Each structure stands twice: as structure tokens, then as C-alpha cells.
Amino acid sequence: MEDVNPALGAFVQEAREILENLETMLLDLEGQPQPEQIDAVFRALHTIKGSGSMFGFGILARFTHHFEDAFDKVRDGLLSIDDRLIDLSLKARDHMSALLSCGGDCDEAEALEASTEAGRLLRSLSDIVSSTAADAPHPPAEASRERRWRIRFRPEASALRNGMRPDLLIAELAEMGRITISFTAGDLPALSDLDPATSHLCWIVELLTRQPLSEIEAVFIFADDAELNIADVTEQAQPAAKAAPAPRRPPEAAGENVRVAASKLDEIMDQLGELVIAQARLSQLATATSDPDLETMVEEVERLVTGLRDSTLSIRMLPIEMVFGKFRRVVRDLSAELGKDVALVTEGGETEVDKTVIDRLSEPLVHMIRNSMDHGIEGAQARLAAGKPAQGTVSLSARQEGGEILISIDDDGAGLDPEAIRAKAVERKLLSPEAQPAEEELFQLIFAPGFSTAKQLSSVSGRGVGMDAVRSTVDALRGSVDVQSRRGRGTRVTLRLPVTLAIVDGLLVRLGSSVFVIPLASVEECVEVDAAEQTRDSGRTMLCIREHLVPFLELDAVFAQAQSAEPRRRVVIVKADGQRLGLVVDDILGQNQTVIKSLSQYHRGVEGFAGATILGDGSVALIIDVASLARRALSQRHAQRTAA
């Protein structure tokens, strides 16, 4: 496979980041736009246009040029910012993103450029620009007359190797007026020594144009290391204008940011995981030998490994604002589609989460926001009749509690209807007609596959697939979902997710001769009980702990192992999906830092396990999926109630 030009890859990555930021910039303009905000949008467009031309994205550059013209009018005060301009700008930004994804001037990009949607966008952009032409002040005669410029341009020797296309820069100059081109090749080596990837030529261009000096300089904005002289030679009798250096972007502090591929971070985490396992093995050997010198060294190694672990994990941590910021566009578009006035409020965007978690959060959050706006938030008339403001509010907030990240989605809408949920559950045979579950249990039923109480389908929701997707994603992230709702007051859905997916603190438990790991974030307490303290309530297996009944599962039965003969067994009380559950084990071995290993493709579908880990003695311990066991216990309770 041909290696990808690193400079081209850097351009694509930078352009994607600019386009993501551009969406936020455009949405910010809907309030009270400031001149610096307008300039930021113009600079972003100019950057993509210039670098796109340089790296062979001519179709993208041509389209961006029309987009840039519109904001040039805004910057000059000739065009006002209104809803039409913002709507059009957001669609144009999406089209630029699609052109960037095509990978350059290929057949796919040409097809996209010739599409009906692209044509409509170009006509709308041209209409906006041309509509201001009649009102634009006429430039002074001196400024509008043609001038002759002599441009001397020598790229840095490695410029061609890094992706620079001098021919595209010259072509952009040619669009400004009439040009003549010549070369100097005094530094050209002998043919036997010639490296075709090295730049040896110096371009001398004479340009006759009405464009000002600033526009000519802008063509070379990315030629940072090139020799560049631009002189006004309109009248040879007058002294030439002072040579203008190539414009340069403000230098960043050395070492301030380093862009690293996510795959390399994953490799580091894999190696760190192996190091943690080796360190656990070393600790076990030191304990067995009782050598004080070895124990001292082991403590030092453990301290260093812990510091390395924390530093490596911090590299993978990103602010969740990266996810939150994307939903301003979602809420804006849905408000227009649904005909509802809804505001988005975010809080705690600085909370840091593992990159893997962030990458997989967008889809479930979109589903919940769509449900909140379609089913939760009422129309303006209904809100006013209920004594609420006409504008609805959806809030996104994040905070950290211990080893978990809590992400809440609140709305001030009508809330969930427990009776409607119960009726639908009975209809779908998820509940027996006689069952009277608590509201917390009823609310969990909205995550059942295909479950929906919507009376009619819409283009936004109503098919019962959204919340099921939320549950699947959260389960894959080893998290849980809590739902709280009050009729007429609104609903809050809280996602509980681990801070990191690579290393987790676990509780080692023994079941017969096997060792399992229970994630410590799910553990509430550990108790010791005997068979006499086990009871049955309406056919359900329960434990009485401090006068509270807690359902329990005997893990030897769940995992089809031989029944335990232990006279007194331990129970680990865990909490998942808003309910407490007891897991009966033979013994509790202690706390351990667990490196998570994925199960093979043949075992990933086994219910009850979230992965595996390697212990200090080299043996493998399975990590228990508390959430799936909690749902299993809930289904058993429903079945027992139905049978009773």
C-alpha cells in the first residue's frame, strides 16, 4: 500500500478540526456577533481554501471561495447576519466536510460538486454576494486601477516532498489577472545528482491585476519557509515597494501541543497493562520469598508503575465538552423540524473522560436529546397553559464521582407517564397484568428493545429503537442508566460510566476453585450470611440485611458450577440500574488493580462477563458484568411474580 503523505494527512486532520470549530463559530454568531467572531470565521474559511489548493483539494477550495466571499461582505459591513445566512452557512459547512471526506479531486468529489444540493448552495451563496454588489460603495479610482506586481518565489528545498504544489499557487495568481512566468535555475545540479523531490527553481511572476497587495500575500499564506518578494513595478520611475515577507501564523510555544495518533495511545495502554500484570507477579514473588531487599525494590517499582499509569491515563483523558459542543447544532435543527423553541444548557464540560468513552457517547446522547425534544418537551401553547415558559430547556451536565463519570440529560417537559409505560409493558408481555412494580422498575422498561409509548411515528422518534441503542452502548462501556421523572415537571436520565476502560479497580472473589473480579465502582458493601438468613418473599430469593430485603443471585448456580459446600458464604452487595443486588460467593480475596482484556469473538456474547484479566500468578480471572446480572435478577423477579 502506498504510504500516505504525512503533510497531506496533517492537512486533512487540521481541516476536520477547523470544520468542527467552524460549526461552533457559526452558532455563536446567532447571538450578538462580535467583529472578532466574524474574523475568526473568515480566517477559518481562508485557511481551508488556501491549504486545500496546495494539497490537491481544488473542488473544496473553489466551493470555499464562494463561502468566503459571503463572509468577506459581512466583515466589510455590506451583509448582515440573519437566520438565512446562518442556515446557509451551516449547510455549506456540511458540504465542505463531505468534500474533504472524498479525499481530493476524485470522481466522488466531482459527483458531489455536480450534485443538485451543491448547485443550490452555490446559487444561494452567489445570490447573497451579488445582492450586496449594488449597495457596495465604489472604490476610489486609484485603488481600482490595474497595477503590475513582480513576485519572486523560491520554495524551501523540501517543500515538494512535504506536499507543496507551486503550480496551484501560480494558478491562483492567474485567476487574479494576467501573468507572465519565468524561472531562475542557477542552483540546478547536474542531471546525475538531481533529486526530483527537491525544489531547485525560483519562480518569477509578473501579475497585472486590480487586486490589492493583501490578496496576493494571502495566496502564499502557507509558504512559511519560502523566500518571497512582492514588488509594485507599475511605474518603473518610482521606487519599488518594500519586499513583503510571507505572512506567517503566530508561532506556538515549543512543545505546547503534540499530535499523536490514537492507535499509538492504545499501544501504550496495552504495554502499560502488561507492565501492571508483571508488577503484580513481582509483588507475589516478593511476598513468597520474604526477602526485605526485594520487597523494598518491589515497593519502588509499584510506585513508579502507579505514576506511569496515572500519567498515561491522563494523556487519554479529554474534556467532555468535545461531545457537548456538537449538540448545539442537533438542538437547533430539531427545534426547527419540530416547531418547538428549545434551548440547550450545558454544565461541567471541563470534566475529563477517557477518549474511548467520548468516541462512543455521541450516539446515545443524540437519541436521548431527540426523545426529550419530541416526547418530553411540550408545544408552546401546552407549556403556557401549564404555567411554564414557552421556551423549553434541555440540560446536559457532567461530573465525576470516584471512578465514575455521571452524565445527566434533563428536560423540563411533561415527564414520563408510568401508567402508559405499564400498559405498554403488559401489552408486550413484559409485565403480568397483576404486577405492581415500583416506578424505578417501570422506567427501566423504556430501554427494552422496540419499546415505545408514542401514539404515532415521527421522523424523529417513535419506533422504540433509540433507547435500546442507549442501553446497548452503555452496557458495552460497562456503565448503567438511572431514570427519574415527575409528571408535568420533566425527566432526568443519568448515565454512569467508568472514567477509563483500560484499567479498573476490582474486588477479587472466589467461587469454588475459580477467581472472578467484580468492578469496585459497583460494590456497596460485603456481608457474611448463612443459609438461615436467606428467605423467600412471594417466591423470590431475598436476603434480609439490616431489616431491608435485597434480592440475590448465587453465582455458582448462575455460572452452572457445582453447588458450594461452604457453611458460611459471603455476599457482595452491588448496585446497577438503580437497584441493589446481592452476589453470593465463597470468599472475598481482596482488592486488585485489574487490567481489562477483551474476550475473544467466540465468547463476547456470553452473558454475565465484561472481559477478563490476568492475575499475578498468571491465571485468568473473568470480570463480572454487574449490569447484565442485575437485569437477569429483575427478569427472574418478574417471572416469579407472574408464576405466583
From TrEMBL:
Location of Phosphohistidine modifications: H46
Signal peptide: none
Annotated organism of origin: Paracoccus rhizosphaerae
InterPro entries recorded: Bact_Chemotaxis_CheA (IPR051315), CheA-like_dim (IPR004105), CheA-like_homodim_sf (IPR037006), CheW-like_dom_sf (IPR036061), CheW-lke_dom (IPR002545), HATPase_C_sf (IPR036890), HATPase_dom (IPR003594), His_kinase_dom (IPR005467)
Record domain CheW-like: where: 503-635
E.C. code: 2.7.13.3
A GO term for molecular function: protein histidine kinase activity
Coiled coil segments of this chain: none
Residue ranges constituting the Histidine kinase domain according to the UniProt record: 263-501
Residues covered by the HPt domain: 1-103
Transmembrane segments: none
Lineage: Bacteria, Pseudomonadati, Pseudomonadota, Alphaproteobacteria, Rhodobacterales
Annotated protein name in UniProt: Chemotaxis protein CheA
PANTHER family, A to Z: CHEMOTAXIS PROTEIN CHEA (PTHR43395:SF10), SENSOR HISTIDINE KINASE CHEA (PTHR43395)
Record keywords: ATP-binding, Chemotaxis, Kinase, Nucleotide-binding, Phosphoprotein, Transferase, Two-component regulatory system
